[in-house]
Amino acid sequence: MNDNCRKPYSVIMQVQKPTYQQNTGQKKDYLELKRLVEERMQYIHPARIHWARTRSIIFPLLYLGLWGLAVSGWFSTAFLYTAYFLMGILIVLIFLNLVHEAVHGSLYGNKSREGLVLLLFDLLGANSYIWKKRHILMHHNFPNVDGWDTDIEQSAFFNVAGKAGKNFFTRNQHWLMFFLYPLYLPNWLLVRDFKDFFDAGRTIRKMVRIPLVEYFKLFFFKTVFITYVLVLPVWLGGYTLGQAFCAFLVLLFTASVFALLVLLTPHANIHNSFPVPEADRKMPSSWMVHQFLTTNDIRLDNPLARLVLGNFNYHLAHHLFPNIHHVYMPEVTGVIREFAATHWYPYRAYGLLESLRNHYLLLKQHALEMDILEEDM
User: Fold this and answer.
1) Please, what sign has the CA dihedral across residues 228, 234, 235, 236?
2) For the whole model, what pTM was predicted?
3) DSSP assignment string, 118-184
4) Is 275 within 8 Å of 284 (Cβ atoms)?
5) What is the DSSP letter of 208?
6) What span, in angstroms and rounded, lies between the C-alpha atoms of 97 and 59?
7) Residue 150, exposed/middle/buried by CB under 10 A (0-12, 13-18, 19+)?
8) Are the C-beta atoms of 305 and 256 separated by less than 8 Å?
9) How far is Cα 197 from Cα 199, in angstroms, rounded to an integer?
10) What whole-number distance in Å separates Cα of residue 63 and Cα of residue 88?
11) How confident is the model at residue 293 (pLDDT cuts 50, 70, 90)?
12) pLDDT digit string (tens) for 66-99?
């Protein structure tokens, strides 16, 4: 199961990766589940994916159009802020609906075309190369495993994996989140990417040899992003630097909050497990069971939610079958839910507000160094 994630990359074996338990019965269960999913997908009309591919044109054009109008100088400063607010939302829509699918090779099934989509991610300020490595090599192979899942190690200010609070920030993370979470995207774009490239102590650096050209692309695209969102509004639109900087913050903060509403809820949840490898690096369960224990779905099933979330709310299906495009995930999830009920696997789904509350409780539990749900367990 891990081979598909590992093949495209040359891995530097400087660290011993965790390995999953080999359970023959559960392996047979996974193969049966896969067969049931493939059978169900035969009855889904393939035209459904065409709209998803159309969005790969519409969303970037909307983003470019809003930016062009904003920096033209034809409108008021209020329009600049409004346009950058909407651009922040579009960054997340592009990420969920296009970039995430392209990373898994499920958007077009064409490596060259999906490479262009990843180039778009670079133009949005992120680094597509290092994010692809983090996402495929680490997050998908080891969700919720401390030291291996980069998605639960966004910042030293927060602890979601179960370590006791060690400093002012982690001891107070359950209320500091309301002030620091809006810095999620600035941290990603301006800090985290650079640390992954230059901090030799980070696990991703021990796993991957970064080509020299990627260092050039890192600085080049970061410069392009800062130039068109911050410098060109001053140069072309006649705005003051202060106005352009405020708009820049609106874009980053909007994208941060909107992204975290989606990204936090499927894994960083008080009811999900954060398994710890044994001394021999063996995980306590098989790969399939690990996905069930560390991943939950979000109960949102309407056309708007599907458009906004890119069916990210059907997250267990994505982790069990990452190469299936998200437009098929509602049906795939139905198969998984029925299979889990008949085979006694722990499928879980929560409402969005409940999931956000569960994330808050997770931070509070780890901040207080105690189990705040002890009486309920």
Assistant:
1) positive
2) 0.85
3) HHHHHHTTS-HHHHHHIIIIIIITSTT-TTT-GGG-S-TT---SSPPP-SHHHHTHHHHHHHHGGGH
4) yes
5) B
6) 9
7) buried
8) no
9) 6
10) 9
11) very high
12) 999 999 878 889 999 999 999 999 999 999 989 9
Please count the CA atoms within 13 angstroms of the CA of 355 that sit on its side-chain side.
Answer: 23
Joined together, the tokens standing for residue 322 give: 């990452």
Burial 189-213 (b: 16+ CB within 10 A, else e): beebbeebbeeeebbbbebbebeee
284-288 contacts at long range (C-beta below 8 A, 24 or more positions apart): 284/21, 285/20, 285/21, 286/20, 286/21, 286/22, 286/23, 286/26, 286/27, 287/1, 287/2, 287/20, 288/1, 288/26, 288/27, 288/29, 288/30, 288/320, 288/345
3-state secondary structure of 186: helix
Number of Cβ within 10 Å of residue 175's Cβ equals: 12
Cα separations (Å) of 187 from 95, 182, 193, 229, 319?
A: 17, 9, 9, 17, 26
CA 275/CA 74 separation, integer angstroms: 55
Residue given tokens 């044994």 in the structure block: 278
123 vs 226: CA distance, rounded Å: 10
Counting beta carbons within 10 angstroms of the beta carbon of residue 169, is it exposed (0 to 12), middle (13 to 18) or buried (19 or more)? middle
Tokens of 19: 């390995």
